[in-house]
Specification:
- With about 425 residues, the chain is an alpha+beta fold.
- Helices cover about 35% and strands about 15% of the residues.
- An 8-stranded antiparallel β-sheet has the order 5-4-3-18-17-16-15-14, with helices on both faces.
- α2 (about 40-55) packs antiparallel against α12 (about 400-410) and α6 (about 190-200) crosses α7 (about 215-230).
- Residues about 1-30 have low confidence and may be disordered.
Length: about 425
Amino acid sequence: MRHTKIMKLQFILLFFILFGNIAHSQSTHEFLDVEGISKERLSRYDVFLQNEIDEGRISGAVTLISRNNKIVHQATYGYSDLSSNKTMQHDGIFHLMSMTKPIITAAFMMLYEEGHFFLTDPVSAYLPQFKNMMVSTNVEAGKEGPTVDSNKEITIAHLLSHTAGFSHGLGGTALDNDIAKALYQETHANLESRVNALARQPLIGQPGEQWYYSASPDVLALLIEKFSGKTVADFLQERIFDPLEMKDTGYNIPLKKQMRWVPVHNYDSEGNLITSERQLPIMGNTIFGGTHGLFSTATDYMNFCQMMIQKGKFKGRQLLSPKTVDLMTMNQIGDLRQGPGQGFGFGFGVTTDVADSKIIGSKGQYYWGGAYCTYFFIDPKEKLISILMLQLQPYSNYYNQKMRQFVYQSIID
């Protein structure tokens, strides 16, 4: 009898072990697969980033992914500052660098919706310093090289699409180097001074005849000030940051938040990753530019992306018209390309041909990144947003492509 009771108890225990595990497995599976994203498959992304940290290639990272307007993944990895071994936090404040550009473009298009200008207007109608521009015929001869007259006026659409013939000073030619020196190595008291320096440089090509990554968003920023009568910083605060609850975004980091700043890192002469000796100032910035300059968190930038993917709406408030968002995120450069399978809209790169791009994704995806290796993409077809924040120089597109590779392969519906 006693033996029989023991066997019954063993059977009951085995039953609960077996079926309890099955129930737990099913529950875990339901928790892991959220909005058509497999957590098991997405863990490959976690493993990859952690390995990059373990191997000394990056210091730390923040990732944030949304699908169907729901956060499906949020994670931190490694350290925000190698010099102090400070652990990365989800609310770390990053240099956005060129991820400033899409925000400036959205702000500028709000003024378009108010009727301040046409996209076909010549820029010189509002900023006369851009009248009668000269075009270099030998970019390797620098700013003093031979030039010809521009054959057409630069339009506002040219500014928005990086087809004006301006440069960012990053192309490596003698003229690029001269432009970089004029814009970023000379002292400028304000934004208008930096824009005037750009206006004095020859164009690298005729307006509308090439896509060339440029400092055009600085001109957009100055136009924001002209049309609104406010500084760019004030306009962004009122029209973008406050409505989108971007509480940690701006051109300066307040003293009480500076412990959350994530400094940039680089490799030393021996190939070791270190906190960079030279850092851009995080306070006292007075040039509120369009090319770069903003600081933000992954969460704040997600709010901006959510507004864009919801056709200009955020928490019931319409910041931009759906038709304006469509205009901004369609290819605006025709057959001019900024990369295989990639066009450009107003403020965003746009995937035009997935096969040609040779990277997993969707036609119509739009995106951009920043010089310190911050990246995002918005995929309207998949209702998907992904953000990856690093602070590493020099810039590499490697982690951008890895983000897309790992995020897209995790989709299972």
